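Hey, sorry to bother you again with one of my protein questions. A protein chain has come my way and I'm curious about its shape. I'm sending you its amino acid sequence along with the backbone structure tokens. I owe you a coffee for this, so here goes:
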Amino acid sequence: MSVGGYDTHSDQLAAHDNLFNDLNQSLSAFYQAMVEMGVAPNVTTFTLSDFGRTWLPNSNGTDHAWGSHLMAMGEL
């Protein structure tokens, strides 16, 4: 799956707040479905991006930068 909208140049805080809330709800629903099917211990969700943003804002947001962001979710 793919979700756009993270490449913001302005109003990042509000945009990312909405995007991360949606991501949180989506991952929670996916995990709950895996639990209900009894396969949660066998499933690992992983995402990776090499895209980043600068820490300091410019006049209209932040600029492109290096990044290596990843997230993994699963059970032990």
User: Anything to note?
Assistant: The CA atoms of residues 49 and 69 lie 5 Å apart. The first strand starts at residue 44 and ends at 53. The mean pLDDT is 84. The helical segments are 12-37.
